[in-house]
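Complex record, two chains
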Amino acid sequence: MDPKIEMSDVYEPSADIVAREIEGEIIIVPIASGIGDLEDELYTVNATGRLIWARLDGKKDLRTIAAEIAAEHESSPGEIEEDVAGFVGELLTRRIVVKGGGK
Amino acid sequence: MSKAAGSKAGLKAIRGDELPLSGASFLALARAVLGRGFSLRFRAKGFSMAPFIRDGDVLTVVPKGGDLARPGDIVAFVHSSDGRLTVHRIVAFRGGEATIKGDNVSMPDGTFPEGSILGFVRRVERDGRVVRPGFGVMGRLIASLSRHRVWEGLLSGARAVARPLRGRRR
């Protein structure tokens, strides 16, 4: 089941991943039982996803993130909000992010 | 998403061995994982640690942290000549510096400050099975023989004996 994403929620990278920008790409290594396993599945984020990923800092809610991206890229906030919610939902399903901001 | 921002935001799953990482990038990723105190599991490339570690073996490296490095330890370290992550054995350790060498090469890599060592190899898997790569007493013995340039001779001798035996078995 897809997680329900509220635009007022705040998210941050999970403690169970290591993310690093390498050669212009964000590479996310999930940590299982204390091991970052390069033989297992890793994740990369596309250019648009990076705009969102860089802002998932445990402080800004998703609406603020969408508004920032919309302003920077002259896009409609509604369209951006939908994309932000979808992307964060995917990250949440894979336990790459957790709800932050004390929620 | 938008004209300016480009396509829809997306996440792509990829296997580590499919990542086209340069040596420097692999080192950056290893540093990121080990630096957070996590172990790193990855596939070895090359033959410089044969027969204990072979091309394609899967290694698990634990972060060095505050642990002392000792002769015989197989370590993942940053090779100063090319800045790559290299897995070789410590053959001598003195004054905070380690002399490191591949078991299957004649010359040492050089002497490196302890800070170049990112972690210790603690597990080697080959074809899905854990193998014994010469740890502990065996590792110290290999380090000593290697330091005195005896190990390569023994290795060549063992290969020379093994070759005709293998031929006979066929």
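Note: Chain A has one domain: 11-98.
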